[in-house]
Structures are given as C-alpha cells and as structure tokens.
Prior knowledge:
The complex is a heterodimer.
Chain A lengths: L2 E5 L24 H6 L14 E7 L5 E7 L1 H5 L3 E5 L9 E2 L6 E2 L5 E2 L5 E7 L2 H10 L1 E6 L6 H4 L2 H4 L16 E9 L5 H4 L4 E9 L11 E6 L5 E5 L4 H12 L6 E5 L15 H11 L3 E4 L2 H7 L6 E9 L5 E11 L7 H11 L8 E9 L14 H19 L3 H8 L19 H10 L29 E14 L9 E10 L2 E7 L9 H13 L3 E4 L17 H28 L6 E4 L2 E4 L3 E5 H5 L4 E7 L19 E14 L4 E12 L6 H20 L5 E2 L2 E2 L20 E5 L15 H18 L5 E2 L3 H5 L3
Parallel strand pairs in A: 1-31, 2-15, 11-32, 13-14, 17-18, 21-22, 28-31
Antiparallel strand pairs in A: 2-8, 3-7, 3-9, 4-8, 5-6, 10-18, 11-16, 12-13, 12-15, 16-17, 19-27, 20-21, 20-26, 23-24, 24-25, 27-28, 29-30
Helix pairs in contact in A: 7-8, 10-11, 11-18, 12-13, 14-15, 17-18
Chain B lengths: L1 E3 L4 H10 L4 E3 L5 H6 L7 E4 L9 E4 L2 E5 L4 H8 L4 H8 L4 H6 L2 H7 L6 H7 L5 E6 L2 E6 L4 E3 L2 E2 L6 E8 L5 E6 L10 E8 L4 E7 L9 H13 L2 H4 L5 H14 L10 H30 L1
Parallel strand pairs in B: 1-3, 2-3
Antiparallel strand pairs in B: 4-5, 5-10, 6-7, 6-10, 8-9, 11-12, 12-13
Bound molecules: flavin-adenine dinucleotide.
Amino acid sequence: MSARTIQGQKNLQDITTGSPHGIGGSPLRPDGTLKVKGEFAYSSDMWHEDMLWGMALRSPHPRANILSVDISEALKTPGVYAVLTHEDIPGSKYYGLEIQDQPALAIDKVRYHGEAIALVAADHPETARRAVKKIKVEYEVLTPITTEEQALNPEVHGYVHEPHEYKSHGSGNICHSQKLVYGKGVTDEVKALADVVVKGEYEVGMQDQAFLGPESGLAVPAEDGGIDLYVATQWLHVDRQQMAPVLGLPEEKVRLTLAGVGGAFGGREDLSMQIHASLLAQRTGKPVKIVYARDESFFGHVHRHPAKMSYEHGATRDGKLVYSDVRLVLDGGAYASASPAVVGNAASLGNGPYNIPNVRMEAIALYTNNPSCGAMRGFGAVQACFGYETQMDRLAAELGMDPVELRQLNAMSEGDYLPTGQQIDSPAPVAELLRRVKDMPLPPPLDLTNLDIRELPGALSNTSHGEGIVRGIGYSVGIKNVGFSEGFDDYSTARVRLEVIGGEPVAMVHTAMAEVGQGGVTVHAQIARTELGVEQVTIHPANTEVGSAGSTSASRQTYMTGGAVKLAAEAVKYALIEKGRKRYGWAQNDLNLVGGKVVSESAGVLVPMVDLLGDEAIDLTREHHHRPTEAFDKETGQGFGHVQYTFCANRAVVDVDVELGLVKVVELTAAQDVGKALNPLSVVGQIQGGCTQALGLAVMEEIIVKDGKVRNASFTDYLIPTILDVPPIPVDVLELPDPNAPYGLRGVGEAPTVSATPSIVAAIRQATGIALNRIPVRPEHLTGTL
Amino acid sequence: MEFLRPATWDEALAAKAEHPTALPISGGTDVMVEMNFDVHRPSALLDLNRITELTEWSITDGVVRLGAAVPYSRIIDELSEPLPGLARAAHTVGSPQIRNRGGVGGNLGGASPAGDAHPALLAAGRDVYVEACSVRGTRLIPIDEFYVGVKRNSLEKDELIRSVFIPVADGPQQFSKIGTRNAMVIAVCAFGFALHPKNHTVGTGIGSAAPTPRRAVEAEQYLQGVLEERGLWESGDLLGTEVIQKFGELVKAAASPIDDVRGTADYRRHSLAVMARRTLTWTWNDYSKQIRSAA
Ligand SMILES: Cc1cc2nc3c(=O)[nH]c(=O)nc-3n(C[C@H](O)[C@H](O)[C@H](O)COP(=O)(O)OP(=O)(O)OC[C@H]3O[C@@H](n4cnc5c(N)ncnc54)[C@H](O)[C@@H]3O)c2cc1C
C-alpha cells in the first residue's frame, strides 16, 4: 500500500527534532510486534490466584415484564459463590454515559434482546454457565417497539421508558432531538430560488464496531473495601464515575488500570462488565474475571445508530446550492448511551462540508426495543454523509455536471460558516482534497486475457472468469469534528517525570489514556523525546492514579492527551533550565534540551542533562483544555459547538459482477488534511483503517435485527472485510496546520470512516445504474432479488 | 466431559460402540465453534487425531480413497488433478488456518447444507461412497443417500467415517460459491458441476439452497439428453445459449431455498442459475479444447 506525505504550503517551522524517534518520525509501536506474534496480553488473558468467573443471564426477549426470578437452584450448584440480581446492588441501580437510564441489572422489565438480568460467580466458567441456566425467570412477553412509526405512536404501542421514569430531555419515545435553522431556513421564498430540486430517502443499517478482543476485565476486592479493576476500556475515569455510585463507593475507592485492549471503535465507551465483575467481587470478597463470549459481545456493547434520512436539496442551474431540508431519524435502541451527542453531531455536520445558504434540519434519536446504539467511529457524521453525498451525485446528474466539480463549486473553505453559524477558523481544503483524489492515477483496467481470479468479485469462490464484470468510479468527501463538543470540557491530564537512570536522562510519561490500538503510546513517547531532548522514554501503565485523559474517541487523543504531554514536558523542560540558571547563572534566552544536553543556540552545549539533574527527579503534571465550545440552541441549532474540523476525500474504483451482485473494491484512494503528521506511518495506518471500516459499511457489515432480535451475533454471519476485500488504499496526506491545536495537528482517525462509504456506493451505482439508497449494499439490491 | 483418545482405528470403533453419544472430533473446526457457542455439550469427545490412516489418501483402479481427515490444504496441493471439483471447493473453505485443520470427514459428519465439499462430491459422479465403519463392519453409503435432513446424515450411532471413495475425474469439473465477501465466508449458495465423458453423464451438486445438499436431477437429465442426441460428446461443438440457459433454469428449479440472514431465497435461485450457466460454459469450453486437440 503506497503512501506519500505532502507538505502543506503553510507549514509551521520544522518542529521535528534531531531524533528520528521524535515527532514527525515514524518509530514503530511498542505493542505492534507482540500483537502480531500473539504475545500481547489482552484483558481476556488476565489471571489471578483464587479468582472466580463471572457470567450474566441475559434476556431472550426484546421487551418483557419480569414476573419473577428464582435463583435458588443456581445458588445450590457446587462451585457457585454468588448469584446477584438488581436487589443486591448496594448503591444506585442506574448508570449511563450522558443520561443515567440504564439499570445495572434489569428491574422488573427488559427493554432489549440480551439485557443482563442476573449475575453468577463460580470457580469455573463451565460451572458459572450451568448455574446461569438454572436461574428461572418468568416473563410476560410484550410486542417490541421496533420501528419509527411504533415509537412515535406511544398511545398505541406504549413506551420503552414509561413517562414517569423518563430521565432524558425527550418525551414520548424520543430520547433526544436537535433542530437547526440557518439563513432563511426553508421557505417558499427560498425554494423559489432553486432551479432544480433533488429529494431522496436513505437508510443505513446497524454497523458494529466488531473489535476482536471481547469485553473483559478482572475486579479485585481491596483491603480498604474498595475495588481495583483491570479492564479494557476507552476512558478509565468515566467508567469510574459511573461505577462508584452503583457500587456504593466513593470514587477514590474505585481504582482502574487499563488492561490490554483488543480494539474499541466506540464500542467500549459504555460500560459492559465493569459493574458486574465489581459487584461480584464485592459480594464474594474474591477476584472476579468476566470475559464475554463472541455472541455475548454482540449483546454487550452498543452499535452504530441505524438511520432513516430524508434529504432535499435545491440548487441553481449553474450548480450553486440554495437550500437543504433534512430529517435524520436515528434508532437509539433501549437506552440513551451517547445518543444525545450523536444527534448533536448528526444535526451540525449532516449537511456536509458545503456552503448552503439556507438550511432546515431536524435530527432525532428514538427509544425502541432494538439493541442500544451509541458511539462508533464517525459518531453521527457517518450516516448523514451517505445521505448528502448521494444527493450531490444525483444533483450533478440532474444538472449534467461532473460530480467532483459540483462538490468543489460548493465546498467550504477557511472563513466559511457551518449551518450552526460557527466560522471555520483554520484550513478547510475541501476542494483541494477532491482535486487530489481525482488527480491520482487510476488503476489499470481489468485485463481479461491475464486474469487472477483473486482480483475479481467473488475471488477464489470462483464465480466469474470475467463474465458480468463492470467497473465503476465514485467520489465523496466528508466532515467530522474532533474532540467533545457542545460546551463539554473534555480535558486531558499528563504527568511527566525526568530523572537519571543508568547514567542516562530518562523521561516517563504517565497518563490515563486508553491505548486501544490508535498508537497514542508511540506518539506520547515521541512528544517527550522532542520536548525533552532525550531518547529513553517509558510509558507508565494507564490508571486512575493520575487525572483523567478523557476518552479515546472523537479523534481527540493526540490532540488532547498529546497536548497534555507536551504541556507537562515543557514544564519539566523549563524547570530543568531554571535549575541550571540558578546553578550556573545562565543569562541566555535561547536555551533548549537537545540530545541529552542543555544547549544554547548562541553559546552551544552548556551542560549534559545528567549533570544538571543529579539525583533529583523533576515530576510535573499538567492539564490540557481545548478552547471552550458552547451548546447548540435547541430550536435553531446555532452555536460555536465544535473544537476542530477534519476533512477527507475519497475516490473508489470498484468492479461489480452485475449478474451476481458481487463487488470487489479495486482501489480506495484517500486524501486528508492532518495539520501535522506526528507519526506519518500511524497517520496513514489510521486513514487506511478508517477506509476499511467504511468499506465494511458500504458492502457487508450489518447487525440484522428482526422484531427486536439480533439474528447474526457471530463473526460467521456478521461479516467484516478480509484481506481479499481490502484494496490498495493510496493515501495523500496534507499538512495544513491548525493554529489552535498542539503542533497544528488535526485528529485523524474518524474522517475517512465518514467519507469513504459513499464513494464506494457511488462507484457501484455507476457500474450498475441502480439507485442504491440503502447501505450496506447487498447482492440482492444489485440483482433485484430482495 | 470425557475425552477419549483412541490410538488406532479399531480402538476408535470400539470406543464409539461403547460411547454412542460421544462426539467425534477431527479438525475441530466445527466442533470447537459449536461448543464455544454452547450449541451442545456432548457427554464425551472422541478425538480421532491420533489415527494416522485417516489423514492418508490413495488411488486404486481410478478411484481415490480419501481419508476422512485429509485437510483441505492437502486436497488442494495433492489432489487437484484427480479431484479438480473437490479441490476447487476446498479452495473456498474458510481461511488457511481452517483449511489446514478441517477436512471432508468433518464436513460430512456435520452434514450442513452449507458444507462446501458436498456439491463437489455430488457432482463427482454416481460412484461416490462414504465408507462408514463400526465394530459391526463396513458400509459403503452412496453419496446420494448420505444426506437425510438439515445437519443430519445416515450414519448409525456407532459408526465413524473412515474415508470417501471418489472416482478420478475423467472430464472437467467446476465449483462456484456465492458469499457476500471475497474470502472466509459460509456459502450463501454453491454449485458443483462435472462432465463425465466416459459414461456420457454429467454431475451437479447444489449447496445451501435446500434442507440438504442435493443434485439437480432434471438439469442433469436434460443436459445428458442434449449431449447424446446432438452427438456433442464426440464433436465437442458449441452448446448454444439456449441449452445453457435451459440448464440454468432447471438447476434453479431444483433448489428449494429459504430466506435467512445470509441471503434471500430469490437471490439463491437467481445466483444458482448464473453459476450453473457459467460453470457449464467453463467446463464445456475445456472439454471442447480437449476434443479438438485430440483430433
Ligand atoms: C472460521 C471458519 C470458517 C469456515 N468456513 C467454512 C467454509 O467456507 N466452508 C465449509 O464447508 N465449512 C467451513 N467451516 C466449517 C468447517 O471448517 C468444515 O465443516 C470442516 O470440513 C470441518 O472439518 P473438521 O475436521 O474440522 O470437523 P470437526 O469439527 O472435527 O467435526 C465436524 C463434525 O463431523 C463429525 N466428525 C468429524 N470426523 C468424523 C468422522 N471421521 N466420522 C464421523 N463423524 C465425524 C464431528 O463429530 C462433528 O459433528 C468453517 C469453520 C470455521 C471455524
């Protein structure tokens, strides 16, 4: 897979240090080789002497009243130490990321297929499994609320949460809604300005994060009555914040340490087994480990919101957008999770990176008895991008314009305004990114005389030797925010320690950042090297002994915790230089730490850091806050809501077997502005990974839910791309610094997941001439056999 | 759960007779997954991995005797010439890891309608037999009588599969499979096809489109009729689109698929017709070339 880095015109002065392992270099990840060789210890590999195994009983029904729960037989099973229901919870019975509407164990009713009802701790997983089967639950099964029509008619179909138990700001079965009006909104007067109007209804299926490491962790009861939890998560401190009230403990008695995380993608933002293992450990006084089986994992975390979207765009004859009228309905499932923030993103970003003078938009998340949906890479911006990008293609077709030119004509750039009224105050090279993907050389056409069937749709399944294959090309561009929005102060903390070990200056970086595979630990070490002029950097295990690092999500960790590491390292640097000034009376103002020495630009090397430090350690902690944002107005959606924006453009080339409806993505090109690539190799990896997840949504990934029941809770039937599905992904990286961000960097991980899906669907559409208003595209859609 | 590890075939048969509910485990690529998903918890596992003759194959008098545990990867490497259809099917199974462990015995033992070996075995001719052994003796079960229901085969409780007898190919064979990704996928449906010039027959096998793997009998008869009447076996002349089309329609008609998470019944029928047309075209082209180069 090829990659090249192109310097932006406005690049900051070269901040890369002499060390090839500082920022701007591409040192390899410390966990990479271990993971590839199978030697990395994941959370599911943990073991503790005398440990018990926890397991949950889960509901087979999406909606039912619980008439009784009989745990007596389960309790009698030899080897069983505890069986718990909600009645055994010492503290608050509810938790939640934004709205505390989810019971830690079901209370009198279940609201989704797979909801946990009771817990067992036993000395062997098999014993726990058998005991779970002996718990007798009497259900009164109710008809689940699963569609928008049902949810919006509670008088007929009832409530997922009865009105008196409402904890969200919504009402009926609406968990959250956000309206937005920009310019004149959509009025008759505005509509009259449009020469052409394109309307469409679009649908997005339920995508799963599909991380490979199942939810798992180990809760160890401590002597002080507290709990030490070792867990794979995305945000240690928010887990603790939700756990402590349920466990009836003060936060300081709930101590978390990050265990090896096998992927996350948003699926570990909510709690899974954290409270359950801790409750069992509290009750039994023994360490309790919980590891979900693969099917349980599909029930144990939230998914990407499925969406039904209606878009109307009006434009002038020469292609200028006049207005958009949008309604996005997201299915939030049984519990709120991150739905309110997802709605905020959908509403504020759902018109794409385009200048549209007049906008009317409404986004809502429903409560239903479908599986709960929440955070997933792209967070509310993914679904909408499929809608607005499909609209752009249709508008271009309607106007007889080139689809890339139409986009470029309406593309926003620095200084323009989003429909929220927020001005974009850093580079927004939307048109340039499109130009770059368009200008990349195209892959050669299929050579029918010299076929390698692995290159064809169906590959080794041997469905075509060239028959039925048609090539298509599609383009798309997308917008994503970086960091938490709407007035939230998601600060990060970092502690940096500098001392002499074995005759060398060594820095240690301590944060609570969850390394979930994004490469944060690599980048933190790079920042410490650059700022402190040392080669040796150790990364302290992430835990709650240090302040919050915020979530590993929203493309924010390099920006936020990386920024905190930079601040803390700078503070250490100044403290060391100050020490030198005191000791040696240096007067120069051009001092820096380079190559293990204090160096003056004018006077050269002053002293080795080792001599200056002596036996002393400099150990400082700093918080990094991004600039403040504000909530969106509930009715107009106006507000300075987001910290930073990021853009990615894609070109997809696909081969479709039009007779069989099978697809092979031949190439998926990406161009993205990353501000500053702290680790170019990681950046390219993130973009390629994001594109791959977008490819999955385009052509295969969907949790199939029928009448509230999940039908494919396994990797046998929830398909994710294999190496034969992932094409070469050439990446063109632009570096146009954002003056507000540390090093000018821009969050990287999500933009390609937002933007790449529509380019693939557009390419399939070009090959087949079929409208394709739903993703993932299935062979049935392409062969008229649905 | 008991874990039985017989060292020889006779010990295995004795163990199976003594523990008829013991579940044989060969590559374990079905058994371990099912246990992990809690599909069943057998009273005992009967591990066949110590019995080396199950991993051997031989050819006698134009018939391959394929040991039940010869893994797919070896079928691909070692038997692509005599068993081209089965080797092509083997190529589509799972991933390299699965192909290194799994084999035809396990596919037959599970008798899933989605097993990829089945359409290839059905197409390979009338003289394909499953060698089923017990302490009572050995039966050769014709492949057509082997599959009796969804995930059910005609083995008795005390029987184990020793091998499969498959005639060496005497003409081109093909196998095609539909999956919604390009590797590592359970068949949405599959089709095996073989030409048997020696006895002027053709073989078909349909996978994942009926409660059991099955042949498309009418399609076979129609095609055999056409080939015979028009002397095409001898001439190797073009079949013509009408024949190919009709053959596809008859294959489609032979299926009785359902809608499920992997695909709709309509799509399965549709794609079977396409695969039937394409595999027939490929095999016939190959056959024509052979005839012409022999002439
Ligand atoms: C990731 C993955 C992908 C897969 N992909 C495919 C695929 O693409 N196509 C496909 O067809 N299958 C696939 N499978 C299923 C499986 O690999 C095959 O069915 C394989 O042929 C099973 O062989 P095995 O030796 O592993 O069987 P085992 O798991 O050992 O046994 C399977 C069944 O056969 C019985 N059995 C085994 N040996 C004997 C014997 N000698 N006598 C009697 N009964 C016996 C067992 O009791 C059991 O019921 C996949 C499995 C996995 C895990």
